[in-house]
Structures are given as C-alpha cells and as structure tokens.
C-alpha cells in the first residue's frame, strides 16, 4: 500500500504504509511527540501493548509515513469508541515529527485515512489537538462540530472527498 507523498512541489521517496508496533523509528517519533507536549502518543503505545487498541477491527488501520527508511509521521483510523455506532470512524493519533512539518505529510496521511474510511464508515470524527491542526482538517473538508468527544466531523455518504486547498 505504499503511496508517494508530494512534498513541496516534488515527489520524493516518502511513502505511507500500514504499520504495526513496534516499527523501526517509532521510538524517535514517540520522544519527539513527548518533547512537543503531546501525550496522546503514550496512549497509542499503552493501548497497543495491552491489546486495547491495535487498529485491527474491520475498517481500522495504523499508518506510518516514511522518508526513505525514517518514520516521520503516524496516524490511525478506528471505529469511534465514543460514538456507540460502528458506522462512525475516528482519525486518531496523528503526529508529524517537527522537521517534516509544513511539507504536506500530515495532509497526505489524513487524506489516506479518509480514503480508507470511505469503504467502512458513513462519517469520520476527530479531536484536533490545536488550532493549526483544526485549520488543516477544515481545509481538507472536515467541519467543526459541537458533538461530544469531537472537534471536527466529515460525512462520507454524500460522495464528498477531502478538499485540499492551499498548501
């Protein structure tokens, strides 16, 4: 499932593919996330270790983005555990290492997750960790929501797709 990612205006060796933990480079990604103040990566590791969440139910996936052999980003898609509805997916644990931000990697990762969600879910929700992330999601077609346990939602049943605009 390798997918090339457009970084700036050039296609590079960056690829998005399904991963399982542990995967080479995940320790550096984890330490970068902690240094950035994002503790949700710790939940990813704890849930994987205990088996509470391994992104292995129908429609679920954990993706890594690699620049050559270097893991630079991660993100997952689950059945939304807060929705009580198996037709609702949730984009989770999206993190891009600082040196690879603002290159389109996060956008490509989330677009891939949404594309994969289309085969399994009627809508996808998420919780943006900060305003920059919220703006990225909105540029991709997610709408702000007041639903409990989510900041943004995208409806997938009407044939709409993520609408990347701007860079």
Briefly say what this structure is:
By secondary structure, this protein is an alpha+beta fold.
Mean pLDDT: 89
Q: Please state the oligomeric state of the protein chains shown.
A: single chain
How many helices? 4
Order of helices and strands: EEHHEEEHEHEE
Radius of gyration: 15 Å
Class of secondary structure makeup = alpha+beta
Shape: globular
The largest sheet, given as strand count, sense and whether it forms a barrel, is: 8 strands, mixed
Q: pLDDT under 50 segments (min length 5)?
A: 159-167
CATH superfamily, by name, is Gcn5-related N-acetyltransferase (GNAT)
CATH architecture: 3-Layer(aba) Sandwich
Could you tell me the CATH topology label.
Aminopeptidase
Share in β-strands: 25-35%
Number of strands: 8
Kindly, what is the distance between the CA atoms of the first and last residues, rounded to a whole number of angstroms? 24 Å
Strand order of the largest sheet: 1-2-3-4-5-6-8-7
């Amino acid at each position: 499932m390798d997918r090339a990612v457009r970084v700036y205006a050039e296609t590079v060796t960056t690829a998005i593919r399904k991963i399982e933990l542990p995967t080479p480079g995940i320790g550096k990604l984890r330490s970068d996330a902690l240094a950035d103040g994002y503790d949700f990566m710790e939940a990813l590791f704890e849930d994987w270790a205990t088996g509470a969440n391994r992104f292995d139910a129908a429609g679920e996936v954990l993706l890594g983005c690699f620049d050559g052999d270097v893991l630079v980003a991660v993100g997952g898609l689950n059945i939304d555990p807060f929705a009580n509805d198996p037709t609702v997916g949730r984009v989770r644990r999206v993190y891009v290492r600082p040196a690879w931000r603002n290159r389109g990697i996060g956008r490509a990762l989330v677009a891939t997750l949404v594309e994969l969600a289309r085969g399994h879910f009627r809508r996808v929700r998420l919780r943006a960790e900060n305003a920059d992330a919220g703006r990225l999601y909105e540029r991709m077609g997610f709408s702000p929501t007041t639903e409990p346990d989510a900041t943004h939602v995208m409806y997938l049943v009407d044939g709409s797709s993520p609408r990347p605009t701007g860079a």
